[in-house]
User: Which sequence fits this backbone?
């Protein structure tokens, strides 16, 4: 049975909106991605991983999709990629398959000499299909849900976890985030069957607008034994006018996380005149500024690296720090929607209607990251709706 596609799918902010926010000139841009030509020996600099004729995603049942959040499957040393809203055909044609979906590959080439190639799909190992057991465009007991969008995935201790946001509307009114709730789903058979933890973080449609637990990124388990998690308000719509770019940090012991004992988290907070880890108060924002969409934090080669879609700047930007609770470097635009304005975009790879920007945990080093970037056309059934691979990114 074919499901109806979600209505009001995430729009990219218009160029007029973006440039007005930055106080600049209105410059036109086409919908087709224009990546700079690279020599044959260079790493991937905008290689499409789906929505291309005969690509490896199509062989597993995915025609067009976004996100492709990468994670390490530690039980067998392979790699998984978690997609958002997905269609079976190119350019969002064919059946709407739901969200999230997953493709996998056996080995990842961190040098970038060869692009990512998907070799099997979950949950069945056959054609890709929606991982979670819920209905899109329906009330599943939490209120009307358009779809559930994955924000990050991690595997440790034999269990796989996906943190997700349930979307109530892709077009929230000013000052609202449009979410229903957020939650954590887990799989004990490496992605085949999924269960929800009973606790959910209430969202906009449940009376808690702008929850700082809307979108998460699993930075990983540090050598100190803590699982570090960054989180922020839901802004996968890129239209949350109250987002403000605030990001918070908390940590939890892996065994507590597995048990769903989320109240055991410790919060990085400015409390009693100093920054400290504490249970006495909630986390304090560690970064604020421009509106931020999808984001990703990973420990790469002993250093913490962050990437995010800067909605205001119209770029995928990066930062880094020696520790999760240390001072972060200034934001650095890496891939931009328009490389002609502002001046710090000049010469950068240009991908109109970009978003996402997930760090591959298998990246070569903290100064040579692989990023998975999404591109949205803004109009249904027009190309491209896909993810692209960029290597050699130095934050």
Assistant:
């Amino acid at each position: 049975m074919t499901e109806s596609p979600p209505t009001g799918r995430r729009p990219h902010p218009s160029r007029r909106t973006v440039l007005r926010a930055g106080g600049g000139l209105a410059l036109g841009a086409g919908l087709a991605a224009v990546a700079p030509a690279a020599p044959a020996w260079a790493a991937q600099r905008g290689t499409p991983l789906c929505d291309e004729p005969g690509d490896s995603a199509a062989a597993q049942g995915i025609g067009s999709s976004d996100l492709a959040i990468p994670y390490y499957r530690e039980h067998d040393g392979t790699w998984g990629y978690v997609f958002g809203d997905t269609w079976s055909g190119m350019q969002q044609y064919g059946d709407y398959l739901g969200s999230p979906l997953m493709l996998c590959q056996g080995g990842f080439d961190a040098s970038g000499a060869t692009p990512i190639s998907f070799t099997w799909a979950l949950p069945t190992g056959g054609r890709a299909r929606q991982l979670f057991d819920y209905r899109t465009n329906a009330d599943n007991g939490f209120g009307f849900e358009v779809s559930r969008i994955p924000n990050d995935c991690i595997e440790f201790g034999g269990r796989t976890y996906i943190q997700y946001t349930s979307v109530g509307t892709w077009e929230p009114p000013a000052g609202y985030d449009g979410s229903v709730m957020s939650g954590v789903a887990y799989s004990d058979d490496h992605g085949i069957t999924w269960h929800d933890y009973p606790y959910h973080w209430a969202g906009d449609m449940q009376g808690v607008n702008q929850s700082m637990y809307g979108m998460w990124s699993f930075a990983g388990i540090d050598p100190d034994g803590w699982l570090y998690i960054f989180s922020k308000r839901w802004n996968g719509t890129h239209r949350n006018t109250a987002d403000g770019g605030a990001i918070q940090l908390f940590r939890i012991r892996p065994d507590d996380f597995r048990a769903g004992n989320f109240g055991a988290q410790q919060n990085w907070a400015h409390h009693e005149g100093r920054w400290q880890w504490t249970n006495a108060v909630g986390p304090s924002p560690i970064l604020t500024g421009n509106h931020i969409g999808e984001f990703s934090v990973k420990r790469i080669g002993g250093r913490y690296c962050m990437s995010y879609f800067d909605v205001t700047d119209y770029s995928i930007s990066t930062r880094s720090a020696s520790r999760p609770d240390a001072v972060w470097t200034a934001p650095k635009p890496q891939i931009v929607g328009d490389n002609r304005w502002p001046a710090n975009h000049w010469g950068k790879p240009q991908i109109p209607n970009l978003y996402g920007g997930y760090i591959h945990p298998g990246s070569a080093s903290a100064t040579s990251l692989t990023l998975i970037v999404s591109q949205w056309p803004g109009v249904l059934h027009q190309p491209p709706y896909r993810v692209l691979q960029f290597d050699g990114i130095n934050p």
User: Anything to note?
Assistant: The helical segments are 15-22, 56-59, 254-258. The radius of gyration is 19 Å. Confidence is low (pLDDT under 50) at residues 1-41.
